[in-house]
Amino acid sequence: MNYKEIVKDVLLTESKELEKSANSVSFDIENIIDLIIQSKGKLIVTGVGKSGLVGAKIAATLASTGTSSFFLHPTEAMHGDLGMISKDDIVLGISYSGESEELIQILPHLKRLNIPLISMAKSENSTLAKYSDYFINIAVEKEACPLDTAPTSSTTLTMAMGDALAVCLMKKRDFKKEDFASFHPGGSLGKKLFIKIADLLKKENLPIVSRETKLKDAIIVMSEGRVGSVIIVDENQKVIGILSDGDLRRALMKPNFSIDCNIEDIATMNPKTFDDENLLASDALQIIENYKIQLLVVTDKNKKLVGLLHIHDLIEAGIK
Description:
Elements: H1 3-22, H2 29-38, E1 43-47, H3 49-64, E2 69-71, H4 74-78, E3 90-94, H5 101-112, E4 117-121, H6 127-131, E5 134-137, H7 153-173, H8 177-182, H9 187-194, H10 197-200, E6 208-209, H11 215-225, E7 229-233, E8 239-244, H12 245-252, E9 268-269, H13 281-291, E10 295-299, E11 305-310, H14 311-316
Parallel strand pairs: 1-2, 1-3, 3-4, 4-5, 6-7
Antiparallel strand pairs: 7-8, 8-9, 10-11
Helix pairs in contact: 1-7, 2-7, 3-7
């Protein structure tokens, strides 16, 4: 049995169903987005079985991208949790058949409460669709399972449709990376999107020297500073140069090298600096990698030294 061919067939089958749906979008997405955006309440996702599992993921995606949302199981709703739905909320009901008994049972109660209903099902003639204010078609021609019965292509399409809905809402809200970060303050994702260089910047006991400093004295400052460089400033504390360990190694290779020379004779003058402390740490790491440097020199708008950020500080903070 060639399992690689089976994997390939499953992926191609599901991708074809996604492509078919993408080429035949006919539901009223503009009014659906406007309805959700203008709502003062939450978007509550509900469904049972595989549709419920997919619905829980859709609700999580919506909640993390700026749309207040949670998943409500229809059975729990019939046993008291219907009270979690307020008059300003909207319900997104998911059932591939459109006839899931547990979900159908709560529909009259939603109508009684005048709760707007968006549905995802395979047929506009289904009970769920007929109760709905807006219907999103998630019909597929072929499930990826060999019996053409287990929800595979259909759940993939439902998941993708939920993603499309979330992305439309993000675009409508002009949802930015910084907004996303505020919803993910913990873990590696939060570190990447939330931590700014101001949170990691070294501002005290900086390795600073003047342009007249002799190289032998600068080396001592470099060793004590433990960032592999010294920063050259003028009398107003403005950054005018940097001496890195790389500059020092290159100077050592020259035949006329003298440890008694002035630091500016071998340093990199007018180095690249950055004046935005609110720069995301992940962006700072990208800059460091692009410029092939190890140290980010941060100044104010007048080029006065504010602090230093070493690549090791980013790595230790878990920025990747």
